[in-house]
């Protein structure tokens, strides 16, 4: 029976309090912020022939100066996670163009602003609230992207063209004159339900400069992911490796493992990552890097090893808003890799640090989806692990 | 209900944020002659002025040649007129030609003013890794500059130049490769890498060498190195180089540019503190006296707060004034000091240009006036020309 048109709307926000001593100049610092305030919409024509998927992100209002996040970098910040753009995602999707031909393969197309088919899911849709250091190595997002995907049996191949430039502030749109200067490929294999392996390749033209005058990024990613029952309990686990090379300049690598188990309302989770980060010139505000940059040199590379242990509980609903309080703590090591003048011991005062975050995930309406994938049809595996009851 | 109230309180607290402070305004006794905007690719890095011609190095937009008083196109410092331009090849550097600095070679042996050397500042890791070639530009016709050759040093990139024009030797700071001397006599064409004469590391080992600039003075070549400080090198008419004195003498900050008061025999060096070496705030200009043998001894300093670097240091042609430029902070801009006592410069004027600041500054005497040329950093990069004749009396 044909499915009728549908409209789903949802919203989420996370008030958090974070304290950390992974702070420039050897200080300890704490703050409270409202992060990831979003409104999401998913509208579909009958039988989902066309889908409009959108997400508005209001971090430009609530964390204009970014979120305290040890090891975070990119889009003009360091040691703070940048706010995303107001129009976080606005994709027009044709999830299964060949359905009437009843072929064993499915063809999907997508056009708009959103996630590039590369790497793993956006950290926003994963268990740990604090973004990993490898966000800019393992995901490519908020781009004007044209994508196509072919799925046959357990295999799926996606390809895209997009603009290389990253946004510089929350109200900025992609530089449309650069659409097509960057590309990506992602191959995904799902041999059994719940298990997934992906390998991705991307070339990103000058991501750090809007006018395409900077260094390019040649990227690889591979990950295995489990999202299904283990001993009758829902378990999510993911192991990823990624690498980003600025040809002739430097190579950054990352390995990350994370897992979450659910037992009733209780959801303990864990993440361990080791990620290289480029060190750039900062302004007199030690959390802000110099933009626009005046040359293509970096100060060095640091290696961040962070172990995070967290616990969340599904606390129920108030006024149809689901509550999910959580607390997570991290032990952090920062070391220098190779040459350069950036000395983390001088800059941070020490090489071992800690961080503690507490907050509440608030969600209303439609269930959050796996951010970073535009699949043929939503199903149970498309729900993000941190949102599962 | 109580839980909802607590939630709203937490949300309200989470929306709190802090704002940055603004820069102070300090008026100076200088006149803005001209502002020449450049395409922000990233912008302008350095300027070389000679005979009323300004060779402006504009990163991936290449070289822009302006008449600022020569007369070839009727330009003046108050109304520069573009004469010609060229975008050199990238020489395999992915990020483009990245033109940083220039030296217009006036060859006294044959009277030619044919060659201009351009420095390409490729990607690097400050303190250990660099890239970029020296491009040779034929400027016989200033309206049609043409690239004719290049110098490549494997595993390193070039920075600032100085020339012994009489002996046709180009000295180039080469970051992690130290200092090189290059024979630029005769006709220059194609790959001139084989013209390397000599190479020396100012630091005591390769881990302490990242050389920013050089200047020739009384038979010695002075090198300022980000890691090892100020070093006196010996050189001669053949371009042979050897370390003589100094080095490892600026240990609390990273060093930047240098300039020598050739009349009084003092050296002035800047510091680069975008990344603090030991936690010291602000940036400094160090004053060095030279012994009878030319060995440097630090005798004084000037500290500027709320900036990321002293990005350039220059003594005026008549030795009366010291100019240094600063960037990345509310106190960025041009600073002018009197060298009536060269060991203890005294403040004369400050010209603010916005917190992005000035990347490099150069003097030029044109039509009986003294001008300061500055490379204003993005956002809104521009060539800034100040008439500072009033300071020079």
Overview in brief:
The complex is a heterodimer of chains A (389) and B (393). Chain A is mainly β and 389 residues long. Chain A has 3 helices and 19 strands.
Largest interface: A-B, 56 and 55 residues
The strand line-up of the biggest sheet of chain A is 1-2-3-6-7-8-9-10-11-12-13-14-15-16-18-19
Compute the separation of the termini of chain B in Å.
77 Å
The top-level CATH class of chain A is Mainly Beta
CATH fold-level label of chain A? Porin
Share in helix of chain A: under 10%
For CATH, the homologous superfamily of chain A is named as Porin
Count of distinct strands of chain B: 29
Strand order of the largest sheet of chain B: 6-7-8-9-13
By oligomeric state, this entry counts as heterodimer
- Taken from the alpha-carbon principal axes, the silhouette of chain A is globular
Element-by-element helix/strand order of chain B? HEEEEEEEEEEEEEEEEEEEEEEEEEEEEE
Question: Tags for this entry?
Answer:
heterodimer; A: 389 residues; mainly beta; Porin; 16-stranded antiparallel β-barrel; 3 helices; B: 393 residues; five-stranded mixed β-sheet; four-stranded antiparallel β-sheet; 46% strand; disordered N terminus
Helix-strand layout with pairing:
The complex is a heterodimer of chains A (389) and B (393).
Chain A (H helix, E strand, L loop, with lengths): L5 E18 L3 E18 L6 E7 L1 H4 L4 E8 L2 E5 L5 E8 L10 E10 L20 H4 L4 E10 L2 E8 L19 E8 L5 E10 L12 E14 L2 E14 L3 E12 L4 E14 L20 E14 L2 E3 L2 E20 L3 H5 L3 E14 L24
Antiparallel strand pairs in A: 1-2, 1-19, 2-3, 3-6, 4-5, 6-7, 7-8, 8-9, 9-10, 10-11, 11-12, 12-13, 13-14, 14-15, 15-16, 16-18, 17-18, 18-19
Chain B lengths: L1 H13 L16 E7 L8 E5 L2 E5 L5 E5 L13 E6 L12 E7 L9 E6 L13 E5 L7 E6 L9 E4 L4 E5 L5 E5 L6 E2 L4 E5 L10 E7 L2 E6 L3 E6 L7 E5 L7 E8 L4 E7 L10 E8 L5 E9 L4 E7 L5 E7 L5 E6 L7 E7 L5 E9 L2 E8 L5 E6 L6
Parallel strand pairs in B: 9-13
Antiparallel strand pairs in B: 1-29, 2-3, 3-4, 4-5, 6-7, 7-8, 8-9, 10-11, 11-12, 12-14, 15-16, 16-17, 17-18, 19-20, 20-21, 21-22, 23-24, 24-25, 25-26, 27-28, 28-29
